[in-house]
Amino acid sequence: MEMKLTIKRVPTVLSNYQEEGGGGCGRNCLGDCCLPASKLPLYAFKADPKKPAQDDELPTEFFLNSLLLAQISELYQMFPLRNKNETSSLVTLKHKWEDRVARGLFRYDVTACETKVIPGELGFVAQLNEGRHLKKRPTEFRVDRVLQPFDSAKFNFTKVGQEEVLFRFEKGGGGSSYFLENAPSTEGDHAPSVVAINVSPIEYGHVLLIPRVLDRLPQQIDPESFLLALHMAAEAASPYFRLGYNSLGAFATINHLHFQAYYLSVPFPVEKAPTKKIPLAKCALNSGVKVSKLTNFPVRGLVFERGNTLKDLADVVTNACIWLQENNVPFNVLISDSGRRIFVFPQCYAEKQALGEVSQDLLDTQVNPAVWEISGHIVLKRRTDFEEASEASAWRLLAEVSLSEERFEEVKACIFEATGLTESDEEEESSESPYASSSSVPRASSHMSEGCLVLQAFVEERGHVAVLGTGEVDAQSLNPRHSRREEVDAQMACWLPASTHPNPGPQPVPVDAVWMLDLHPNPGPHGT
Questions:
Q1: Is beta strand 125-128 parallel, antiparallel or unpaired with respect to 377-380?
Q2: Hey, CA dihedral for 106, 108, 110, 116, is it positive or negative?
Q3: I need a surface site. Which of 45, 77, 132, 464 has the fewest CB within 10 A?
Q4: Domain's final residue, options 396, 431, 466
Q5: 460 pLDDT higher than 70
Q6: Same domain, yes or no, for 348 and 465?
């Protein structure tokens, strides 16, 4: 009889319908009964992200700031449009994610979760999130089969209510991205891809990308779906908006294809980690993809970047993932740098856990090291673990995730063969991360969508200078409670045209310091 490796863990609740039995017919779900007749909002992305913007192109900040996080509309109301031809949809667009907050669709207020940067070279980010697992019973999961058939009897995303969906995300027919507030579903064989909220968010703007939801795809990477995820990262156009993927056996709990994504305005530790470039033979350079391996990081992994086109990069990484899943190697993927940099982590933590090879004190933390934890954003469930968190404790946990050096090199060789890459005889080159020169204390996360870049765009485009009054920010804290809407007026002395700003009085804040302001109102408690 075949031995099955299983672990018991508390499943993450991604949807409010996850614990309900049966189908969703009659309640406006994402199944065949309701979705074909729906008129969900549609974001249609252009095929080539590198193509120059057209005259009618949506602003680059539209996808992230207006559609997902929905704050640019507030800024457009605060400042007059210099060009009357600029899109007015930014003013009238519904606040997608915030609207779901107001409707109480989330299980807890993630903005109230304590978050801190752990002192140390890599700057691991720790969050105390006691509401993510309460009142949940552990469920048994099989961890020795990365590929498992789709089971319609279990929860899947066709049972999600449409109120949890923000918009459809699909390739458009032209050279520009566009947005439609109400778009009838297309007829025929086309199954829509949707972006839905994660009702148990790790961070602000936490969403799920569900490719071709009606096709009921199991949790496994395929070329079309992975390219879709890269397009989402490219449309967000922010280094602080990342997508992640967990395979079965690597802490995915729902066997229905999905990616996760959220916004965090600090570099992830893995993004700051040094890498060693793997020299490739000339015959392997046609795609333009560069490959490196992580060094001085607790989890061994490969880094894929560049590529002549987004599809070239997607194809190489997809082939790597296909080899991993077909050969039963659990793995996690982080899509970083607006889709230009991708980390692939083969891992073995769940297998070790099933075999009784993980120490009890690590198990007691109830940390499930999936893509976000591996990347350095660690969600802790107990206050004692949060208060005592250190770089050493984070390193110890993540080191258990990693393959051994010998096993990693074996897997790397197989991945290279599967992707058509060939190492050259040149010596490997070490390189620094793009974030290597960052301050040891990252910027605070304001829960405002890339505040410095958003406001910088307005400074550059409208000639205004942000001026900050009194108010302090704890640089170690990523939850600046002082900067709520009711306090903004007291903190902001004025907004004046740069050419007329007086010398006396409050001094202009450098644009790269405006991240301290949060123009979001305090949503208050919501969910249960």
A1: parallel
A2: negative
A3: 77
A4: 431
A5: no
A6: no
Residue of 95, 133, 256, 258 marked active site: 258
Dihedral sign of CA atoms 227, 228, 229, 234 in order? positive
Is the confidence at residue 181, as pLDDT, over 70?
yes
Same domain as 270, residue 325: yes
> Which residues, including other chains, have CB under 8 Å from residue 30's CB and lie 6 or more apart?
24, 157, 158, 159, 160, 161, 162, 165, 194, 210, 213, 214
Based on the number of CB atoms within 10 Å of its own CB, is 404 exposed (0-12), middle (13-18) or buried (19 or more)? exposed
Helix (H, G, I), strand (E, B) or coil at 355: coil
- Tell me the sheet residues that pair with 302: 293, 344
Same domain, 419 and 457: no
Given the structure tokens 């990342």, which residue do they identify?
A: 242
526 is catalytic: no
Whether residue 445 is contained in a domain is answered as no
| Within-domain flag for 356 | yes
Is the residue at 521 inside a domain?
Answer: no
Residues 406 and 482 in one domain: no
Within-domain flag for 225: yes
User: Which residue segment(s) compose the domain that 506 sits in?
Assistant: 451-516
Tens-digit pLDDT profile for residues 377-421:
999 999 999 999 999 999 999 999 999 999 999 999 999 999 998
